[in-house]
């Protein structure tokens, strides 16, 4: 699977026509087939390089396994709970979303839900259609002066908070990632959840569906709330425990709920939907013309950028891969992969602890993408499925490798201005160090032996260790190359350690038989980097 080689993309859900148009303008072949059955999807996906979905298509492990050429799954929207991200990662398939595309639409729906709860607008409208004029039954409340708890202060949560502040609501909230100082800038006072429950008149949730957020509102938390608390869920079904919500509604502990999402969609159990104090919609958070156009446009542009090598945005499971598109990081990723391959081959094992150390201030933030690249090299040539920056760390772990990263701002001269990458197999003498000169990955050191002139690590390379006093190995190698019409493109030798030197030879073509060379060296291996 080569990045930038996307050719055919399947759109399996209904999307704005601009999505198809942008993909086609980017040189991609597009199949638009919304509403496929599971069996039809399994057939259609086999020869596709990309798949674009909304929320209807379920991208399961079975679908991913059937997709022999798949490189990317694009979710035109925020949540990716309809995509098996772990299975995609294992296969090396990139998953991306459009986290900003439907934020405004979801926030506006949430605000509308809060207003509907306060004034019972849907119930009153339904009553009018039945020919009634029941003013007393639908007594509401003002939002001014009420307290709104916003659980989850990302893009949507903060948009809801600032809009409801315009109605005079006091906004409090909780988010384990956003700092209180940041939330204070958009008017939300952060508090621990235990302090929030008894303070709020309204609760709205805007978190992803995770093990830690499933059932965030439950029997226990409802019991701690003010009697008559109003609840809004326009995020993900399951964040609010539906059984607990129904019990709270029936007891009056919860005065009303507005739900756009459900654990099962569409919900088969209608008891919650049919409750008179529940307002429900069929998952309309992103159902505006503007959001659909924006999401379709954004995901198409992201996939075209990926296909043309321009860059990656909206990446869910391969943040390291996004760095591979930056011109300044590409040679470093090539170096990291080459060092992993050299270490694995020299160490003759692919198990144990591997330490990746970045040296020098320029590489301070580079461990996040260089470590997966080293893992790629360590696994190269193994029996595993194709290894990419997306799945390298997962596959390394499963192969019994523990790959860790450290950093030091100090790198020895002459590499202090560019940096050094050092990879060591813990508990052994095996260690390799390299840097980048211009755009060329080069080896500085192997197992304590230093190269005065760094050796390029690209193309067919032959590496051997022999007695420093014995020059017959090079002559034998030259003879082998001449027999097959090959050329010696470069030769670099290391300092002497225990009477032996390492040599790295750049070849024009790999050698199929090293039999004549092996008696003249201590060890030899051939790589294609």
Structure overview:
With about 525 residues, this protein is of the alpha/beta class. The protein folds into 4 domains: about 10-100 and about 290-315, Rossmann fold (3-Layer(aba) Sandwich), CATH 3.40.50.720; about 100-280, Rossmann fold (3-Layer(aba) Sandwich); about 320-435, D-3-phosphoglycerate dehydrogenase, domain 3 (60s Ribosomal Protein L30, Chain: A); about 460-529, ACT domain (Alpha-Beta Plaits, 2-Layer Sandwich). Helix content is about 30%, strand content about 25%. It is built from 17 helices and 22 strands. The strands form 4 sheets. It has a 7-stranded parallel beta sheet. A 6-stranded mixed beta sheet has the order 14-13-15-16-17-18. Strand 20 and strand 21 (about 500-505) form a beta hairpin. Helix 1 (about 15-25) runs parallel beside helix 12, helix 5 packs across helix 7 (about 155-165) and helix 14 packs across helix 15. It is elongated. The protein starts with 7 loop residues before the first strand and ends with a strand. The mean pLDDT is about 90. Belongs to the D-isomer specific 2-hydroxyacid dehydrogenase family.
């Amino acid at each position: 699977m080569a990045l930038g080689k996307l050719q055919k993309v399947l759109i399996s859900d209904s999307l704005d026509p601009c999505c198809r148009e942008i993909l086609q303008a980017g040189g991609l072949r597009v199949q638009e087939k919304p509403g496929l059955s599971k069996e039809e999807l399994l057939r259609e996906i086999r020869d596709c390089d990309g798949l674009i979905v909304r929320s209807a298509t379920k991208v399961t492990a079975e679908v991913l396994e059937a997709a022999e050429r798949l490189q990317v799954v694009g979710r035109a929207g925020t949540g990716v709970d309809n995509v098996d991200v772990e299975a995609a990662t294992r296969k090396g398939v990139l998953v991306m979303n459009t986290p900003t595309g439907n934020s405004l639409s979801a926030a506006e729906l949430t605000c509308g839900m809060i207003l509907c709860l306060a004034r019972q607008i849907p119930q009153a409208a339904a009553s009018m259609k039945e020919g009634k004029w029941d003013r007393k039954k639908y007594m509401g409340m003002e939002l001014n002066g009420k307290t709104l708890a916003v659980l989850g202060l990302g893009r949507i949560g903060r948009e809801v908070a600032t809009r409801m502040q315009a109605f005079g609501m006091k906004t409090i909230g909780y988010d384990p990632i956003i700092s209180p100082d940041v939330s204070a800038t958009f008017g939300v006072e952060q508090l621990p959840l235990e302090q929030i429950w008894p303070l709020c008149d309204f609760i709205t949730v805007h978190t992803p569906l995770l093990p830690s957020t499933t059932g965030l509102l439950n029997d226990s938390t409802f019991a701690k709330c003010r009697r008559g608390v109003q609840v809004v869920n326009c995020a993900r079904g399951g964040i609010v425990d539906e059984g607990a919500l129904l019990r709270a509604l029936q007891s009056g502990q919860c005065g009303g709920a507005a739900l756009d999402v459900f654990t099962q969609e569409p919900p088969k159990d209608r008891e919650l939907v049919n409750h008179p104090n529940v307002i429900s919609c069929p998952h309309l958070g992103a159902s505006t013309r503007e959001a659909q156009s924006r999401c379709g446009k954004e995901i198409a542009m992201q996939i075209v950028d990926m296909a043309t090598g321009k860059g990656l945005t909206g990446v869910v499971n391969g943040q390291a891969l996004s760095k591979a598109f930056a011109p300044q990081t590409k040679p470093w990723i090539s170096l990291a992969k080459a060092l992993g391959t050299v270490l694995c081959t020299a160490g003759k094992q692919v198990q144990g602890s591997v330490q990746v150390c970045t040296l020098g201030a320029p590489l301070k933030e580079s461990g996040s993408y260089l470590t997966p690249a080293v893992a790629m090299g360590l696994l190269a040539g193994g029996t595993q499925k194709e290894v990419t920056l997306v799945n390298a760390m997962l596959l390394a772990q499963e192969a019994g490798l523990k790959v860790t990263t450290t950093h030091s701002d100090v790198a020895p001269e002459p590499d202090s201005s560019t940096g050094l990458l050092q990879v060591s197999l813990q508990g052994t003498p095996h260690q390799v160090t390299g840097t980048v000169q211009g755009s060329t990955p080069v080896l500085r050191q192997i197992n304590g032996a230093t190269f005065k002139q760094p050796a390029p690590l690209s193309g067919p390379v032959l590496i051997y260790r022999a007695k420093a006093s014995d020059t017959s190995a090079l002559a034998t190698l030259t003879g082998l190359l001449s027999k097959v019409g090959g050329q010696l493109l470069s030769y670099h030798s290391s300092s002497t350690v225990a009477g032996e030197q390492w040599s790295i030879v750049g070849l024009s073509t790999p050698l199929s038989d090293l039999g004549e060379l092996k008696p003249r060296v201590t060890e030899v291996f051939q790589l294609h980097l």
